[in-house]
Amino acid sequence: MTDKLLNILTGINRSxxxxxxxxxxVNDLYxxxxxxxxxxxxxxxxxxxxxxxFDQLIALSTTxxxxxxxxxxYVDELTREVGALVEKIQPNAIHAQHLGLALSLAxxxxxxxxxxxxxxxxxxxxxxxRSTSEREAMNEVAAASAAIVxxxxxxxxxxxxxxxxxxxxxxxxxxxxxxxxxxxxxxxxPTGTGPLALVHAGRLDDNKSTITAxxxxxxxxxxxxxxxxxxxxxxxxxxxxxxxxxxxxxxxxDPFLPRAELWRRLSKFDAFVFTTKGLEAFGLVLIxxxxxxxxxxxxxxxxxxxxxxxxxxxxxxxxxxSLAVVLDEMGxxxxxxxxxxxxxxxxxxxYDIATTGRQLCELTFRVTS
Length: 369
Fold this sequence. Notes:
Elements: E1 6-15, H1 21-31, E2 36-43, E3 56-59, H2 71-89, E4 93-97, H3 102-110, E5 116-119, H4 123-130, H5 132-144, E6 147-150, H6 153-162, E7 171-173, E8 197-201, H7 210-217, E9 225-229, H8 235-244, E10 251-254, H9 259-266, E11 271-274, H10 284-291, E12 296-299, H11 304-308, E13 312-315, H12 320-332, H13 334-348, H14 353-368
Parallel strand pairs: 1-2, 1-4, 2-3, 4-5, 5-6, 6-7, 8-9, 8-11, 9-10, 11-12, 12-13
């Protein structure tokens, strides 16, 4: 690596605030790369504390029209805005977040000879699997990129398949991480057998399948309690379903929490429940749970077991009966839960955002040299 300070242009076409896993990740990531000068393109409103990770943050002005017949004119307008910024900033490299979405297309069409590193986050791959036009956009960005980064081998293989295995040599896996230096872990070990205090955190949408956890509680032998933390389109449906199942006193809903507050609360629970039923790029919340000593009952999706190591217990995706069995076994077997807790702490130490930043920084130096 050289002492040269690289000038990087990147961005995510969303409100510049810690509103999702991708936004939290990029904030952590660019904080972890002091060797790079970063200009981030986002949207208003801008969280002033959050933007401190970047040397410069610019709010895009093009009206967002991500769907329907206005999409192509929208990308053309966004491309003109981004092109003017590229001309002004003259970056050494572009990090195109979300492979194939509108901002990545704009970067691709204005980069010229500036090398692009495309970074996949998961939702971009999901839409490419559902839509021919989105798949064409992914292929356009992949073809223009010097490197394509995915956080797991599973996601890399899906991208490879969606791009006709034409860019296999450009794919590289860089696992995501969290700022381990900020973690304060309680030394309280799991205590006793019996009903568990369970937690689930994330977007409340169909793919996250929180309904699996709610319905599982109606099938368990023990009266476990579940706290659901997050917001989303299915929140009201989930609340109604909990009442229908007679779980009003056993399922509690909390709004989305800033990460510092979420981390303060995690160690108060006995186990984490991960219920996603479709594609999951990485699942940073799994590592957040593990680093606070929580065993994880997880939906057995491709790649998730590799991330968790031996510190999780799988169940059949979308199957409340399967999850209910796992939760009851956890509740009964205190010694196994203690072992899972220790293994979880050990496993989480593999995923430091400082390592993610170093690997992406090294890749950026390679493609610009």
